Amino acid sequence: MAPLPDVQVLLGVSGGIAAYKAADLVRRLRERGCAVRVVMTAAATAFVSPLTFQALSGHPVGTGLLDPAAEAGMGHIELARWADLVLMAPATADLIARLAAGLADDLPTTLVLATSAPLYLAPAMNQQMWRHPATQENLARLRGRGVRILGPAQGSQACGDLGPGRMLEPTQIVEALLADRSAAGAETGTDPRSAPGPGPLAGVRALVTAGPTREPLDPVRYLGNRSSGRMGYAVAAALAGLGAVVTLVSGPTALPTPAGVARIDVETAAEMHAAVLGRVGAADLFVAAAAVADYRPAAPVAQKIKKADTQLIVHLVRNPDILAAVAALPDPPFTVGFAAETERVEEQARTKLLAKGLCMIAANQVGAEQGGFERDENALIVLWADGRRDFPMMPKTRLAGELAQLIAERYVASP
Ligand code: CTP
């Protein structure tokens, strides 16, 4: 397992049943060589004793903002400066709301405002609370500020419900931190642990979107599509294999994160838009492989829609085009788009290449007999301003490797 030596982690624990897993998280972080200091919300102390965290971290645990004894030791401003990264695990819906609002009404939230270190949240809550538009809006706001959201996982919950909201396992949180730090470190070029590997894209910072988006209709239903995310994940892995430092912004998929890739999970097109635009300034290369919903329900409702009339009319409104928005930036990265067409593939793809102002477009034919969604194989026609290359039907992982090679060639040749 790769180490995180000497990284100073400030762990904030908030009041949810997953707080017991935070104890194991401290052990896992220390196993990797991190120094860990723990602060807790008042509610968290009802679940796990501060003494547990003190014993595991080897340091006193902060639980209050106005504690003269704690302030006489490492005071809160000193603690905020000490941290290389701040991790809130579990991050409850209440903590997420307070962070989104910028409140500083207890020790963990105050430290978040007082630190310049990157902030990671590992949400844990009931699935209904996770799906609530208020929580999703709060998360979108935080993502827009560059906060990294790790998880949550799907599955059975302590309350008996089934769905998204379980905190990631401590080992998964540590893996996600490691992957994200190696990406962020190479972005700034300051972290020797993230020295990029050899390859034509050594040190190049790539941002990739993948998977479908889900556009909520009500708390239990969404509009989605059949994208599995396989092509985008394979491209992200292939770019990393060529030496790039890759951040993958992913819609909901069942796929594991490729090795060495930092993954940011999103659900809706609006969240993907915010996650991409918040990071693209630090990217040299942008590959939009996600199947982003072009439309979303105009007004998702807070309560489950009940069947009543024989018809239900849902009004949809346009989502932002993430790829076009990136290509239209004043100083855009090398931008690669995808196009799925049922007919006149080359002609329509070339129109999109020009209309969106892309550097390259990878087009595939979709339809009954073709590759595309939910298939292991695909064929591509790749176009750029003055060239094209055809890739015949082959497994998506191999195709992604060949496409990544071509992207690297064109990127290196670009002005
Ligand atoms: N894309 C995006 N944001 C959107 C829609 C699409 O970033 N809101 C990106 C996709 O990731 C893909 C490309 O744009 O790289 C697909 O473009 P689009 O014009 O939506 O393609 P089609 O779905 O093929 O277009 P249309 O529905 O008009 O045929």
Automatic annotation (TrEMBL):
GO CC terms, sorted: phosphopantothenoylcysteine decarboxylase complex
Protein name: Coenzyme A biosynthesis bifunctional protein CoaBC
Annotated EC: 4.1.1.36, 6.3.2.5
Molecular function as annotated in GO: FMN binding; metal ion binding; phosphopantothenate--cysteine ligase activity; phosphopantothenoylcysteine decarboxylase activity
Cofactor: Mg(2+); FMN
Start and end residues of each stretch annotated as Phosphopantothenoylcysteine decarboxylase: 1-205
Its biological purpose: Catalyzes two sequential steps in the biosynthesis of coenzyme A. In the first step cysteine is conjugated to 4'-phosphopantothenate to form 4-phosphopantothenoylcysteine. In the second step the latter compound is decarboxylated to form 4'-phosphopantotheine.
Gene3D superfamilies reported in the protein's UniProt record: CoaB-like, Flavin prenyltransferase-like
Binding locations of CTP: 294, 304, 320-323, 338, 352, 356
Co-factor binding comment: Binds 1 FMN per subunit.
Presence of keyword GTP-binding: no
Active site: 159 (proton donor)
Domain of life: Bacteria
Span of domain Flavoprotein: 8-178
